[in-house]
Structure formats: structure tokens, C-alpha cells
Design a protein that fits this description.
The chain has about 150 residues and is of the alpha+beta class. The protein has a single domain, classed as SoxY domain (Immunoglobulin-like), CATH 2.60.40. Helix content is about 25%, strand content about 35%. The strands form two sheets. Strands 2-8-7-4-5 form a five-stranded mixed β-sheet, with helices on one face. A three-stranded antiparallel β-sheet has the order 1-3-6, with no helix packed on it. Strand 4 and strand 5 form a beta hairpin. The termini are far apart.
């Protein structure tokens, strides 16, 4: 019996080993976040408090034809005084690799608690904006955004 292997067999074996390790890593699954991660991040932000619906408004399209650049806005009707103001607004996403899409910081000198930007959405998902007020309470507003593939409703 010949114990020598050819160079072709060695290369084929190495390629098979690389392919099997790539399957074990499963990068496609790692790229998409889990709703539990977003919920955990939200609870960490609120210190376990349950946010309530209120004057926080999240603006987001119902359908986004391009998930790479989805317009988003947040605002809170607040007097923005030293005694009563919005300190921070975080936007949580359920299916992105990272559960926090964006965070905005405010001071009483900000004048108003409003901001807009574009966010990236990896897939159709729920998006929640949570505002921390100076009195320690939290407000929430949630929207679902359907991300289509090439504008075809996928």
C-alpha cells in the first residue's frame, strides 16, 4: 500500500477543511441580529424599567425600497428646561447585527428634542425609539418597516 498522497489530493483535502470550517462559522446567521439582543439592549438602557407610550414620535416609512438608507426621524414634545428635558433617544432594531441603530444626546440648551438621519435595516423588522427623560422615565414608539429587495416587495 502506498502512503504517499499527491499534491492534488493534499490541495483537495485542504479545500475541504476550509469549506467545512466556513460552514461551522455560519456567517450569514451572524450577520443578522436577534430580537432578544435588541430587547436585552433596551432593558439595559432603561435599567429594567418598562417604557410607556407618550409624546415620543418615530417617523419611518412603512416600506423601504433600499434597506441601506432608510430615512428616520424622532421627536419628543418636551419643554426642554433644566427641570424637564429629554436626555437621550436611542433607536433599537430587531434584525440588524447590532441592536442599536443610533443614539442622540440632548441638553436643555438643545431647544427641542428632535433629530433625523438615515439608518440601515438588514431586513423587514420592528424599529423602536426609546427616550430617557430627566425625571428618569422612559418613552417608547415602535414602527415596522418592510424592506423590499430592489423595490419588488420581497
Amino acid at each position: 500500500m502506498n502512503s504517499k498522497i499527491s499534491r492534488r489530493e493534499a490541495l483537495a483535502g485542504g479545500a475541504a477543511a476550509c469549506a467545512s470550517s466556513a460552514v461551522l462559522l455560519r456567517p450569514a446567521e451572524a450577520a443578522v441580529g436577534k430580537p432578544a439582543a435588541a430587547q436585552a439592549a433596551l432593558m439595559k438602557f432603561t435599567g429594567g424599567k418598562t417604557p410607556t407610550k407618550g409624546s415620543l414620535k418615530l417617523s419611518l416609512p412603512q416600506i423601504a425600497e433600499n434597506g441601506n438608507t432608510v430615512p428616520m426621524g424622532v421627536s419628543v414634545d418636551s419643554p426642554m428646561t433644566a427641570a424637564n428635558h429629554v436626555e437621550e433617544i436611542r433607536v433599537f432594531v430587531t434584525k440588524n447585527p447590532l441592536p442599536i441603530a443610533v443614539s442622540f444626546l440632548f441638553t436643555p440648551e438643545s431647544g427641542k428634542a428632535a433629530a433625523s438621519t438615515h439608518i440601515r435595516l438588514a431586513a423587514t423588522q420592528d424599529v423602536s425609539a426609546v427616550a430617557r427623560l430627566s425625571d428618569g422615565t422612559f418613552l417608547i414608539d415602535t414602527r415596522n418597516c418592510k424592506v423590499t429587495i430592489g423595490g419588488c416587495g420581497g
